[in-house]
Amino acid sequence: MRFKGKKIGILIESDFYEHEIWYYRYRFLEEGADLHFLSRLWGQRSITFKGHEYKAPFDCNESFEELDHEQLLSYDAIIVPSGIVSDRLRYTESLADLPPATAFLQRAFACKKIVKGIICHGLWLVAPAPELVRGRSVVCHNNLHGDVIAYGARYVDEDVVVDDDLVTARTGDHAGLFARAIINMLVRREGAAGNEPMEGT
User: Fold this and answer.
1) For residue 63, which of 71, 53, 55, 73 has the smallest C-alpha distance?
2) List of E strands, 26-171
3) Which of left, alpha, beta for 120 (phi over 0: left; psi -120 to 50: alpha)?
4) Is residue 7 within a helix (H) or strand (E), and if so which, with residue range?
5) Is residue 167 helix, strand or coil?
6) Out of 46, 52, 77, 131, which residue is the most buried by the measure of CB atoms under 10 Å away?
7) How confident is the prediction along the chain (201 residues), in pLDDT tens digits per residue?
């Protein structure tokens, strides 16, 4: 298992695209990843979210709001999935404050060691903090093309786009290509780390 010891966080909320989330659940575990689904739990111990197409239940009991800096740094990748998840997560009680999920993403972007994966409508979560992708190469759902231009990002007409520590993909139906790009990036990083000279040599 190539990912033994690798930790991946995936944001989740209601109206998630079941085929995509189920794919991640099996694909990353297949590689041996330590997989965590994170959400805003509103002070509750867990919430059961419902999928968009089949209303499939998904229990989440981990909150991104409770992660301190050290815990965040334990993650190798943070993924924002497609569909309505990001729209639900970008709610904020006060318009003067960033949505908690966007603030969490902002913290992840500040850590270059963490691979950031955003697919399809996941880029909605960037709207309150467009500087996160300004000047960077991304792809998104066709419906968000204007949003991405407004963010100041460079739209690239490809199914998956890799820009340093950021991986974006066009739609939830490209979840396989998206996951493969993230896996390949983490494998390359592991290889590069393994080739670094030991301290003192």
Assistant:
1) 71
2) 34-38, 47-50, 57-60, 77-80, 115-119, 137-138, 154-155, 160-163, 166-169
3) left
4) strand 7-11
5) strand
6) 77
7) 667 779 999 999 999 999 999 999 999 999 999 999 999 999 999 999 999 999 999 999 999 999 999 999 999 999 999 999 999 999 999 999 999 999 999 999 999 999 999 999 999 999 999 999 999 999 999 999 999 999 999 999 999 999 999 999 999 999 999 999 999 999 998 877 655 543 443
Tell me if 155 sits within 8 A of 139, measured CB to CB: yes
What the block records as the tokens of 185 is 């990036």
* Domains located in the chain, CATH noted: 7-90+97-193 (3.40.50.880)
Q: Which residues of 81-117 are buried (b: 16+ CB within 10 A; e: fewer)?
A: bbbbbbebbbeeeeeeebbbbbebbebbbeeeebbbb
